[in-house]
Description:
The model has no long low-confidence stretch (mean pLDDT 96). By secondary structure, the chain is of the alpha+beta class. The protein has helices at 8-18, 35-53, 57-63, 79-88, 107-141, 144-156, 284-320, 344-376, 380-415, 427-436, 444-455, 458-478, 485-508, 513-548, 555-572, 575-584, 588-591; strands at 66-67, 73-74, 159-164, 180-183, 188-199, 208-217, 228-233, 235-237, 243-246, 249-254, 265-278. The chain is globular and about 80 Å long. The protein is built from 17 helices and eleven strands. Among the domains are: 8-144, Butyryl-Coa Dehydrogenase, subunit A, domain 1 (Orthogonal Bundle), CATH 1.10.540.10; 160-282, Butyryl-CoA Dehydrogenase, subunit A, domain 2 (Beta Barrel), CATH 2.40.110.20; 448-591. Helices cover 56% and strands 12% of the residues. The structure holds flavin-adenine dinucleotide. Flavin-adenine dinucleotide (FAD) binds next to β3, β5 and α11.
Amino acid sequence: MPAYRAPVEDTLFVLNDVLKYERYNNLPGFADASPDIVEAVLREAGRMAEEVFFPLNQSGDQEGCIRNEDGSVTTPKGFREAFEQYKEAGWMGLAFDPNYGGQGLPYTLHSAIGEYFSSANMAFAMYPGLTQGAMAAILVHGDDEQKATYLPKMVEGTWTGTMNLTEPHCGTDLGLLRTKAVPQGDGSYRISGQKIFISAGEHDMSENIIHLVLARIEGAPEGTKGISLFIVPKFVLDADGSPGTRNGVVCGSIEEKMGIHANSTCVMNYDDATGYLIGEENKGLKAMFTMMNEARLGVGLQGLSISEVAYQNAVAYAKDRIQGRALTGPAAPDRKADPIIVHPDVRRNLMTIRAFNEAGRAFLLWAALKSDVAHRSEDASDRELSEEMMGLLTPVIKGVLTDKGFEHAVMAQQVFGGHGYIEEHGMSQYVRDARIAMIYEGANGIQALDLVGRKLPMNGGRAIQAFFKEVGDFCEDNRADENMSFFTKHLKKGLNDLQAATMWFVQNAMAKPDNAGAGSHDYMHLFGLVTLGYMWALQAKTAQEKLADGAGDRAQFLEAKLTTARYFMERIMPETGAHLARISAGADSMMALAEEAF
Ligand SMILES: Cc1cc2nc3c(=O)[nH]c(=O)nc-3n(C[C@H](O)[C@H](O)[C@H](O)COP(=O)(O)OP(=O)(O)OC[C@H]3O[C@@H](n4cnc5c(N)ncnc54)[C@H](O)[C@@H]3O)c2cc1C
């Protein structure tokens, strides 16, 4: 049986010591998030993740969701009750606008606890996750009446939400979508069409489901310029605002899939369903992107979450399982063999995952703080710069953390040998669950293209230049510090590779766009390595300062930070060179074979 413990100490180290988030207490909501409140919230979220959501993870995977004959969907045993506890604890509205019942606490805190919930039970955490995305879109693009009608119930968790983009013939290229909307003359529309792969599209945990649906108004232009966004409630509301008539939207079937079995992935059939336009006509894609940026951070977080829980279980197994002897002679001479954690190759797996997890957590919280500044600062230029930086970082977070999340679930599974392939230990489920995060919310190949094609050149490259400056200044400021020079040397080499790759695109991709497409995956990962390396350099500096101050009972924790930072710099950071070499090779050999040769 797998186990999970929320890494609260590590989150606190990142928030309090590395990012010093108290510096931001002039932002709305941060004054209420004093260190003791933050710690209490993290501990309670950790407890609920461990005791309520985690015990349902394996059983939910085995049971899956069931679609009943009437189109209703039954979630696995215990999910409804767990969702009630989630609602009662107020997690749904933790960081949401207080005007609609939220608590207005930092989004950074919401992200921190989101990691615990997804580690404990990714399929469960997706139900509130989708709702929060829908809430964000209604808050930003809805009119006052729509906000007042839908948001308070969603913040309570009494109603949940979904996002409906994908159709059988259109996923990445939403310009192809066919679902149509016919105006009724009373402000409402009739929505007809089929959406597929809709997460949490139907279930038994809420009184109403508020679907956000992309559709094309009759007569609208072809392509992405003719797409609008609609609210389509499962139950149309009565005059008093309570769920009334059943709307013309049903779950036609649920998908049999590789992982996240406990999350219902639905085919949704819309047949003259009543819908309400949200935001402007034909601007639906832009509105949906509001939802997607936050959702992409949430998906990046899923990569980290699975990597963390898989790591914890691999460590426990590696200490327990005995096979063979250490290369340096018996480590446990009183036993017939040594625990496998003595073997360097097992260590390679464990250290690689650990080095990613602890930097990935810092990366996510660093980015979440930028999101808080972008949405809450009173200073317009701070807001603008943070928004741009978030735009640049979002595809990196989504693409890198989920690619690595899956890779590390596989590495953790490897530590179990054949037992990792057997369902009992839960490692197979982590591999299966982690896989989808690389695909949905824009497949990772698309994230890489978004980074290279849209985010790099944005505003003349202002965001990437700001990133180069921040990391470059850090290296320069700490170069003379002999305790830091090891870290800054490796970080600077990675930064140089990233700058060289950026310059290579400027010189070689304008005239030949395939060069950008061919290098985009490597560029995204090169960028990810430099960011994670920067996070390690920041953590190493903090750990050294704390140790110099006399760390007391935290000394072991801080020493381990330094060791892990060294591992990252020596053994992971050098991969930047390989990425740069592949980027600079261009597209020729990739594109040379004629289609018939495949
Ligand atoms: C379990 C699950 C849950 C999901 N939940 C939701 C949900 O809640 N709501 C929703 O709307 N959708 C949802 N999806 C759909 C998901 O977002 C899409 O599957 C995804 O966006 C990819 O679209 P596609 O499957 O049509 O693949 P395609 O668009 O056909 O892409 C196939 C491959 O081609 C690549 N590709 C496509 N175009 C390009 C290009 N221009 N350049 C380079 N490469 C390209 C892609 O990267 C991909 O690898 C879910 C899917 C699954 C499996």
